[in-house]
Amino acid sequence: xxxxxxxxxxxxxxxxxxxxxxxxxxxxxxxxxxxxxxxxxxxxxxxxxxxxxxxxxxxxxxxxxxxxxxxxxxxxxxxxxxxxxxxxxxxxxxxxxxxxxxxxxxxxxxxxxxxxxxxxxxxxxxxxxxxxxxxxxxxxxxxxxxxxxxxxxxxxxxxxxxxxxxxxxxxxxxxxxxxxxxxxxxxxxxxxxxxxxxxxxxxxxxxxxxxxxxxxxxxxxxxxxxxxxxxxxxxxxxxxxxxxxxxxxxxxxxxxxxxxxxxxxxxxxxxxxxxxxxxxxxxxxxxxxxxxxxxxxxxxxxxxxxxxxxxxxxxxxxxxxxxxxxxxxxxxxxxxxxxxxxxxxxxxxxxxxxxxxxxxxxxxxxxxxxxxxxxxxxxxxxxxxxxxxxxxxxxxxxxxxxxxxxxxxxxxxxxxxxxxxxxxxxxxxxxxxxxxxxxxxxxxxxxxxxxxxxxxxxxxxxxxxxxxxxxxxxxxxxxx
Length: 480
Hints:
Layout: E1 11-15, H1 18-21, H2 44-49, H3 72-86, E2 90-94, H4 97-100, H5 111-126, E3 130-136, H6 142-147, H7 155-171, E4 177-181, H8 191-195, H9 206-230, E5 235-241, E6 245-247, H10 252-275, H11 282-288, H12 300-306, E7 312-315, E8 320-322, E9 331-332, E10 339-340, E11 346-347, E12 353-354, H13 356-370, E13 374-378, H14 396-414, E14 419-422, E15 445-447, E16 459-461, H15 463-473
Parallel strand pairs: 1-2, 1-14, 2-3, 3-4, 4-5, 5-7, 6-8, 7-13, 13-14
Antiparallel strand pairs: 9-10, 11-12, 15-16
Helix pairs in contact: 3-5, 7-9, 9-12, 13-14
């Protein structure tokens, strides 16, 4: 479209994660993952943060919605056909590590798992949809979390390298775009999801968190090395959670605190993975959090330098406000991020502050800092959807949210930012990562299941389905 600012070949699509939609948690030779041990409900993160949680699955006490998901495992052809009907150019999904190596430390992969993902990939290709695969998305093998203590253990580098090698060798001829870890920096606030560590296994000690990060950085570079040796044209990115961060006022103290929060949360992991070296502010952070000396093996720093990622994938849902001079400042909810309420912004039903201009700022900050392509691989509005007698959802609120963020993307392109694509989160309703609920819905497609797993599981197109179809068909020029 000549009147579109979005470039030809822009990757419009949607995003999901294996542990949140596949279900079939014991089928096809799959082992248990950390996601399978996460109970559902609004107290999910509180349970995982408790001093006594040890990854034990207690079905008498909790429900586990991830065990069923939306049964995508048996409905992936139907679901991908719906994505194709919307006109998806790409589909971001993840491979469940436990479908390939059920315990994580085996030497021989599970062929049934590889066959399943081969079928998913082939279904995408059949419909002209480019697969975008996250190698590890909040679902590492439970065995590695319980028996090895999670990513603080250096042995996991070997296990991840073996896993990455298997999937890259198997699928590199059909899959160009990859990401190594989902929202790797989220561990700063919540190590359970991405590092497989809880307080009972050392999550409360920042030394463990930063050692786990180092091990993941090394593992990520090994995956980049494997991929580029298979095909130099493969694009292998990092993936971070990003919240544009504002100082509450012009007080220099708050301005400095904002810089520090940006360094710690938004930039540290990306600096290492994109630039290939630890940033100059590392010592300040290590001193502040009493990290101490990391166990860094010979040659690892050189590996990080030689094999940085090719692009920056990131999630953007909200912005954050920093104010350390006012202890009474009102708090806001967020995507694993603590922050303060911004009086200039509205919030979602879950208290996440809606800030499309913040996305434009984020795109400029990331691109100007790294000068590598950026890929918005998660963005969306979690909301309670009310269906009519035909299971139709008039989700104008979702359309408004996405429209405003796409307009912000267009403005960033005019600013000179190189944006690869846009994959709104939860393009089909799935289990929420933060609460384990189905009622917190993001999708263009309604799935008839409630928080207890009751319902038919049937899929229904929402109003936003046809709206997004038009957005893609016009390469982002038709937004109303």
